[in-house]
Write a structure and sequence with these properties.
11 helices; 49% helix; globular; disordered C terminus
């Protein structure tokens, strides 16, 4: 659900800069065009390589981070208006290397063993079609990514009781629209670590994006690492300090280079 929300935020941003991308003047227009292209590629993968699955993966990182929004919007536009599928492949290949199998194995060993997954495909199918009706963007891609858990042979372990009361201090950071690790989890972590302080960034959609150029946040992290200083903990269940997230990006006029971090952004499934 959260990734569907975030991809809509991305589509709204594309529409804001329609003079650059020419993909629609409203987020709904851009979203409609996105799914039209997905259906087209599902029927016939371009170059025999980029189909609907690759198309979805290409845009998944836009739900994780705003860093690569412009690059993906330009690729979207180039494909729609010029038939440029090679740029789509370049972005896809840059984040899906052969070494990803190792990371996927580690992911599954944790994901499939932490909890007991339903052992009936009928249950999976029913639940995911219900989710798809509300949030089509990533539902089935994520289903197939986690499908090995349906057949995982290892028994799930017992949940670990986390008691952080003996931890003298910890700095917690979360953007409130982080789709991969939703904000309620940050509040729960704060609850379990009573000596920790939580910094929240309302409206931010970036996952794991600290030390990314936000001076207020970066200075707070530097102070903590240098001296252990934390924001004063406030009463209640909410965050202890709030900062504005980085502003949404603007279209770039320079060519992207291989060193662009958005090229290497790893597609991690929720």
């Amino acid at each position: 659900m959260a990734f569907d929300r975030n991809i809509k935020i991305f589509f709204d941003w594309i529409a804001k800069y329609d003079a650059t991308y020419h993909l629609g003047t409203t987020g709904d227009d851009v979203e409609k065009l996105y799914y039209e292209q997905l259906a087209k590629l599902d029927r016939q993968p371009v170059g025999g390589l980029i189909g609907s699955d690759e198309w979805t993966d290409l845009f998944l990182s836009a739900g994780y981070s705003q860093a690569g929004w412009d690059r993906r919007a330009k690729a979207f536009s180039g494909w729609v208006h010029n038939g440029d599928w090679q740029t789509l492949k370049t972005i896809y290949d840059g984040a899906n290397t052969p070494g990803d199998d190792n990371g996927f194995a580690v992911y599954l060993s944790m994901q499939c063993s932490d909890v007991k997954w339903p052992q009936s495909w009928a249950t999976w199918r029913k639940d995911n079609w219900a989710a798809y009706a509300k949030a089509p963007f990533e539902t089935w891609a994520n289903t197939w990514y986690n499908a090995p858990c349906l057949f995982w042979p290892a028994k799930p372990g017992k949940p670990v009781e986390v008691d952080g009361s003996k931890v003298s201090g910890a700095l917690l950071i979360s953007e409130e629209l982080d789709a991969a690790t939703p904000f309620p989890g940050a509040l729960e972590a704060r609850k379990r670590f009573p000596n920790a302080s939580l910094i929240s960034l309302p409206g931010g959609t970036t996952h794991s994006g600290s030390l990314g150029g936000n001076a207020c946040l970066d200075n707070q992290i530097a102070d903590y690492l240098a001296t252990g200083k934390l924001p004063a903990r406030k009463p209640g269940k909410g965050p202890d300090t709030t900062y504005e997230p980085l502003p949404q990006p603007t279209p770039q006029t320079v060519e992207y280079r291989a060193s662009d971090p958005s090229i290497r952004f790893s597609y991690r499934k929720p």
